[in-house]
Automatic annotation (TrEMBL):
The keyword Cell cycle applies. It comes from Hevea brasiliensis. The lineage of its organism: Eukaryota, Viridiplantae, Streptophyta, Embryophyta, Tracheophyta. This is GOLD domain-containing protein. SMART domains: CRAL_TRIO_N, SEC14. SUPFAM superfamilies: CRAL/TRIO domain, CRAL/TRIO N-terminal domain, Supernatant protein factor (SPF), C-terminal domain.
């Protein structure tokens, strides 16, 4: 017999609500326009196919021609390899990389060859093949500015880029104060990307791409544009934070981007999976966590995309005559707030009820929660 769902829903007819005022028109910034364009163009991410049998006849012909031109242009595998993969070997890993260059130039072989030549020259001059093992410093930037963190729903490694810390003038000068410092930062940024590339499979049907999530807030545009322009094949997805759950599970998204993952979580092994649900306009959702024993401690995380609704938490004892305890009083949660994280130790057996009230809105919102109950160790 299946267990009943912990989620109960109360609906309020939408026609009973006063109509929400239309937002006032505003002048969009360059960053806002760029972010909206990116989200419209990427409703979902689908890995390109690298199975030769799935290619069109013209694409197969271009791949064969590309292989021939490489053999004519380079004398040895050592001159024509990337990420430890000899590109003239003709095996499936080499084909994955060659197809990336062909697709970047719409299967125009001469253009793809020129692009590959430039990339190989740049990697040799830059020392990209050995950069992963170099200690470049920048400890203060690790896990803050550019860092690999988790995977998307399809298993692609995710790299987060957040440059807002550079609005601090002291740090800005320390990192970008002159041309040499900027070059050193570029080497570090490439190092982060190269380490991420080591997580890829480079095989048909495998994971062959990195997801880049770039936070443009307070970004010093000139310096970082210069740095980014120097990194070949540097692909970004720029996305509003509450869209990330379309690509990445909430327990794998950092809290500052609308997820449930906090830095301390990474010290405790793999993240505890979250339960996802939707809150429709006109609905109030109650999440009931039952079976909590006296003396047990329950810890929970909950987030709703774009919040702007009411939230509360209460403990309801099982015993008749006991009073319901308002663990968190009803309050309006602002759109910019991160996930709520809280704990409660019960004195008696009962259940925890987490409530999100979206009855004042017509908009559907995505949400997620997770919890863990630790029994009392007192005998």
């Amino acid at each position: 017999m299946e267990a009943s769902s912990p989620i109960s829903i109360q609906q309020t007819p939408l026609q009973d609500h006063p109509s929400e005022p239309s937002p006032k028109p505003y002048k969009k910034s360059f960053v806002t326009t760029l972010m909206e364009a990116a989200t419209l163009r990427t409703p979902s991410f689908k890995e390109d196919t690298y199975f030769i049998s799935h290619l069109k006849s013209s694409e197969k012909k271009a791949l064969l021609e590309f292989r021939d031109k490489l053999s004519a242009s380079y004398d040895s595998d050592s001159e024509c390899s990337m990420w430890g993969i000899p590109l003239m070997s003709g095996d499936e890993k080499a084909d994955v990389i060659l197809l990336k260059f062909l697709r970047a130039r719409d299967f125009r072989v001469p253009d793809a060859l020129r692009m590959l030549d430039k990339c190989l020259s740049w990697r040799k001059e830059f020392g990209a093949d050995s950069i992963c093992e170099v200690d470049l410093g920048f400890k203060e930037l690790e896990g803050v500015v550019a860092y690999m963190h988790g995977y998307d729903r399809e298993g692609h490694p995710v790299c987060y880029n957040a440059y807002g810390v550079f609005k601090d003038k002291e740090m800005y000068e320390r990192i970008f104060g002159d041309e040499e410092k900027l070059k050193k930062f570029l080497r570090w940024r490439v190092q982060v990307l190269e380490r991420g590339i080591k997580l890829l499979n480079f095989k048909p049907g495998g994971v062959n791409s990195i997801i880049q999530v770039t936070d443009l807030k307070d970004m010093p545009k000139r310096e970082l544009r210069v740095a980014s322009n120097q990194i070949p094949l540097f692909f970004k997805i720029i996305i509003l934070k509450w869209w990330l759950v379309r690509f990445i599970r909430p327990e794998d998204i950092p809290v500052q981007y609308g997820g449930l993952c906090r830095p301390s979580d990474l010290q405790n092994g793999p993240p505890k999976p979250a339960s996802e649900f939707a809150v429709k306009g006109g609905e109030k959702v109650n999440i009931q966590i039952e079976g909590i024993e006296g003396g047990a401690t329950i810890t929970w995380d909950i987030v709703v995309g774009g919040w702007d609704l009411e939230y509360s938490a209460e403990f309801v004892p099982n015993a008749e005559g006991s009073y319901t305890i308002a663990v968190e009083k009803i309050r309006q949660v602002a759109p910019s707030e991160e996930a709520i994280h809280n704990s409660y130790t019960s004195r008696e057996a009962g259940k925890m009820v987490l409530s999100v009230d979206n009855t004042a809105s017509k908009r559907k919102k995505v949400a997620a929660y997770r919890y863990i109950v630790r029994k009392s160790t007192v005998v």
